[in-house]
Write a structure and sequence with these properties.
Elements: H1 2-18, H2 31-53, H3 61-78, H4 89-103, H5 109-132
Helix pairs in contact: 1-5, 2-5, 3-4, 4-5
Length: about 130
C-alpha cells in the first residue's frame, strides 16, 4: 500500500504540475514548499501512528465502525459535487475522522500509517487533482 501510494503521489503531482497554467497559475507555492509539507505530514503521521493504535482501545468495535460509517455518510452528503472544487472542511474532516477511527483498529502502527496516508490521498489530494482536469 505504501509503494502504490508513493507511485500515485509522484504521478499525481507530476500531472498536477503539468496541468498548471503557464506562469505557475498564481498558486504561490514552490516545489520545495510542497516537499516540506509532505515531509512534515509523513513525519508526524509516522510518529503518532503508535499513539493512534491505542486511540480507541476502550471503545467497542461496533461503536467505532458505526461512527466511521456515520462520518463517511457525512462526507458523502457534504462533498461539493456540483462545483469542481476541493472538498469543504466538513466533508474532509468527516472522511479523515472516519479513516482515523478505522486505522485505530488495524493490527500495527505501520498499517495505521499506511491507512492514513491512503486516506489523505483519496479524500484530500485526489479532488484537487480532479479540479485541474
Amino acid at each position: 500500500l505504501l509503494g502504490a501510494g508513493l507511485v500515485c503521489v509522484l504521478l499525481g503531482y507530476a500531472l498536477y504540475e503539468a496541468l498548471a497554467p503557464a506562469g505557475g497559475g498564481g498558486r504561490g507555492r514552490t516545489r520545495w514548499a510542497d516537499l516540506q509539507s509532505a515531509a512534515i505530514f509523513l513525519a508526524f503521521t509516522f510518529g503518532f501512528s503508535p499513539v493512534l493504535k491505542t486511540l480507541t482501545e476502550s471503545v467497542s468495535t461496533d461503536t467505532v465502525l458505526a461512527t466511521a460509517a456515520l462520518m463517511l455518510l457525512a462526507h458523502l452528503l457534504s462533498f461539493p459535487y456540483a462545483a469542481p472544487s476541493p472538498p469543504g472542511s466538513l466533508s474532509l474532516n468527516a472522511a479523515l475522522f472516519a479513516s482515523v477511527c478505522l486505522a485505530s483498529r488495524l493490527p500495527g502502527a505501520l498499517h495505521a500509517f499506511a491507512m492514513l496516508t491512503a486516506a489523505l490521498l483519496v479524500f484530500a489530494l485526489w479532488p484537487c487533482l480532479l479540479r485541474r482536469l
